Here is the input.
Amino acid sequence: MQFRIADGNTNDSITHIETWNTLKSVAGRPDFLYVADSKLCSHENLDTIARAGGRFVTVLPRSRQEDRQFRKRIQTTTPPWELIWDRPDSRGRDGPRDQWYLYRDPIGSMEAWPIVWVWSKHLTGHQRASRRRRIDAALEALSSLRGRIVSPRARIRGASRTPRGCTASSLRSARAPQGEFQNGSPGRGFGLCTTGTSVLIFAQASSDHPLGIQQRQNIRRWLDGQAAG
Here is the structure.
């Protein structure tokens, strides 16, 4: 076991070559398989290891154009996935099977390194369930927010007149037309809840750019005009 202490601000991407050279000295040869996270995936790191006769496995960062291109391509085309792992769910007999698929990219990286895409159906299911839980939590929070806003004690003018049909599912982000506010930034965005011709403001500005009294009055005047129209 070998470790090295570096400054807390040190970027991991610049430490891999030193680490690899240390491991090469310990192993006495360069052709061992070096496995590392996405910080290894830079042209300088990979080229240095390859030219010295080394081998590596790393993760392709989301910032790489190869990742963006592949994600775009699979929206319309299904790759010929190869099943390489298939076993029962370790957490229960009734769960989905733990299946892993590989697809060897015929083009490779921009440096001509091989790329193998990996897909886990098990992980896909977990991510889908997690996304569903977050969406449900957000809708519940928005419904709770609506309940407070439409209360007769709401401090927003016209809040108590909000129609019953305005629910969390009807919340959306809106932007006022250019030039509507003389004392504010034209087109400043704010949150709206709309049902038919009625409109309710629920967020006037971001916390780092609060609106002044006159700007709030202008927004409310514009909203009242929209509701009356």
